[in-house]
Design brief:
Shape: elongated
CATH architecture of the largest domain: 2-Layer Sandwich
Low-confidence stretches: none
Number of helices: 4
Largest sheet: 5 strands, mixed
Length: 141
Amino acid sequence: MTGTTKRATVYFDPVMHRALQHKSLETARSISDLVNDAVYTALAEDAEDLAAFEERVQDEVLLRESVRKDIAAIPATDLRRIMVRIGELATNPRPPDCRKLTSQEKYRIRQGNYRIIYSIQDEQLTVWVVKVGHRGSVYKH
């Protein structure tokens, strides 16, 4: 190791420790150097992921004209929650609870008894909400 170092105790799974010992012997590098490189690589990947996420913060959420008609019939209490969910798509267009619709380039998220159907244009950093409706009727054409 080069430069100033800081000592820490790290506990490895026995299989992982054995693999590190073998790699250390193969490469003539210390286990500490191997672990440091692995951690630096993981942190660099995390930084890239964070940068991509920060770029997505600029997403624009657009509503099709038909969605304006869809939401006109929704009670105010439900509509407030739906609009919050739609707004959240600007920072995270693929939240953990979204589902890709089969055979379509569209996604859906739930808000209570309502479904929000939308498409994502990654290149343009836009999200288009194409349909909002009650779960029983939103998928019917």
